[in-house]
Specification:
By secondary structure, the chain is mostly beta strands. The protein has one domain: Hexapeptide repeat proteins (UDP N-Acetylglucosamine Acyltransferase, domain 1), CATH 2.160.10.10. The chain contains no helices and 20 strands.
């Protein structure tokens, strides 16, 4: 379901609109969104992004232009999640602190990565599949593991894989 309060720029492609849950968010031009994706209110997704199936982008997440989000990527926005407050009552809006997260332009996050709140993933950085990101990933860094650690550097800001050869 794409709620009426979603800001969709020109050319956004939602592959299966009946199999997504988008509400109160902003999606940039030409971004592609796969099935079973949830993007919550006040989340921002830039232009020319690809959000793969089964990913969750919660409130407080800002994704800049040209970012790739693999399948099943989970963002979080609360450092101390609890079901109830100290009085034993189910938590409400006033019982938690939203901690924002930022993914800079042209970053790439591998499938099934988990991104904890308050981190910044740098420009053109690459996060490996299954990583748990608990601290900032610098621009052009390659980070992987649990917890994610910098394992190398992207060679430069251009495409990191060889060009396809004509057949």
């Amino acid at each position: 379901m794409v709620a009426s309060n979603v800001d969709l720029e020109e050319g956004v492609l939602i592959h299966q609109p009946d199999l997504v849950n988008l509400y109160g968010c902003s999606i940039g031009a030409r971004t592609r969104i796969g099935a079973f994706v949830e993007i919550q209110r006040n989340a921002v997704v830039g232009r020319d992004c690809k959000i793969s199936s089964h990913s969750f982008i919660c409130e407080g997440v800002t994704i800049e232009d040209g970012v790739f989000i693999g399948h099943g990527v989970m963002f979080t926005n609360d450092l101390y999640p609890r079901a109830t407050n100290t009085a034993g009552v189910l938590q409400g809006q006033d019982d938690w602190l939203l901690v924002p997260t930022r993914v800079k332009r042209r970053a790439s996050i591998g499938s099934n990565a988990t991104i904890l709140p308050g981190v910044t993933i740098g420009e053109c950085a690459q996060v490996g599949a299954g990583a748990v990101v608990v601290k900032d990933v610098p621009d052009f860094a390659i980070a992987a593991g649990v917890p994610a650690r910098v394992m190398g550097q992207v060679k430069d800001s251009r495409e990191t894989r060889p060009a396809r050869r004509a057949s």
